[in-house]
Amino acid sequence: MDALVGNALLSPVSLALLGLCVGSFLNVVIHRLPIILERGWKQESADILGVKFDTNGDAISLSKPRSRCPHCKHVIRWYENVPIASYLVLRGRCASCASRISPRYPLVEVLTGALFGLIGWRFGPTPIALLWCAFAAMLVALAGIDWDTTLLPDNMTLPLLWAGLVASALGWSIELSQALWGAVAGYLSLWTIYWIFKLVTGKEGMGFGDFKLLAAVGAWLGVKMLLPIVLGASLIGAVVGIVMKMSAALREGRYVPFGPFLAGAALIVMLAGQSRVLGWLGWS
């Protein structure tokens, strides 16, 4: 009976439903964490300079204040915040002022739910599946934050890196040697490319957060998966950048952040599995 209950709770369908709820929370993280970090940096600067810092708003955390409509400040009730269902019932509009709700909110929920369900199918009804769900959730949040702000926060990339190494050391994921050298090679590879590009062009081609993200991904997926991830991310990023440039969605002087494509390629590789990816490349 316990095995049946465990299988049901960790089935792809159950994990997909969990993913919808987690995706709703990730929307909060993507929106609020950069604001929290910016206020913290300003407060630290003000303290150093000995001046008063005015937040010009209420105190904010991931849990408070309650979510509001950005247009009319209507406090969103719990039944207006049910993943996917509320968006459909409200027809993508605020219940108070009928302002349009960004479709990105349900998209993040659907994406997270789909990833959790696929992880359940890939790893089976085991506690290890929850570990990989946490990995996927962190990558979704980091991708969203980087796309909005070109920022990959240390308080997300570094815990993700250490979690990958600890999971490996406990025997929950890949071999420890693969995880360790994956982290080292992940960081140094992009660090090297960054400095070569800067010396040649005098410009910065990526941020330091990308180094840390690839190091974290290497700790989870291993050193052998780094080249497929970087190649896949570069290809997808180039295609998206060209499309945005042709459609005038990319303004002059702006660039497409690399983090979302690293995260996306890492998720694809994780779901495909090492043997299948190496087979695609003819390395097996």
What report would you give on this structure?
By secondary structure, this protein is mainly α. Helices cover 68% and strands 0% of the residues. It has helices spanning 2-9, 12-49, 85-89, 104-123, 127-149, 154-169, 176-201, 208-221, 226-246, 259-272, 274-280. α4 runs antiparallel to α5 (127-149), α6 packs parallel to α8 (208-221) and α9 crosses α10 (259-272). It is globular, with a radius of gyration of 21 Å.
Which residues form runs of ≥5 with pLDDT under 50? none
Distance between the termini: 41 Å
Beta-strand segment tally:
0
- Structural shape: globular
Rg over alpha carbons: 21 Å
Order of helices and strands: HHHHHHHHHHH
Q: Mind sketching the topology for me?
A:
Blueprint: H1 2-9, H2 12-49, H3 85-89, H4 104-123, H5 127-149, H6 154-169, H7 176-201, H8 208-221, H9 226-246, H10 259-272, H11 274-280
Helix pairs in contact: 2-4, 2-5, 4-5, 5-10, 6-7, 6-8, 7-8, 8-10, 9-10
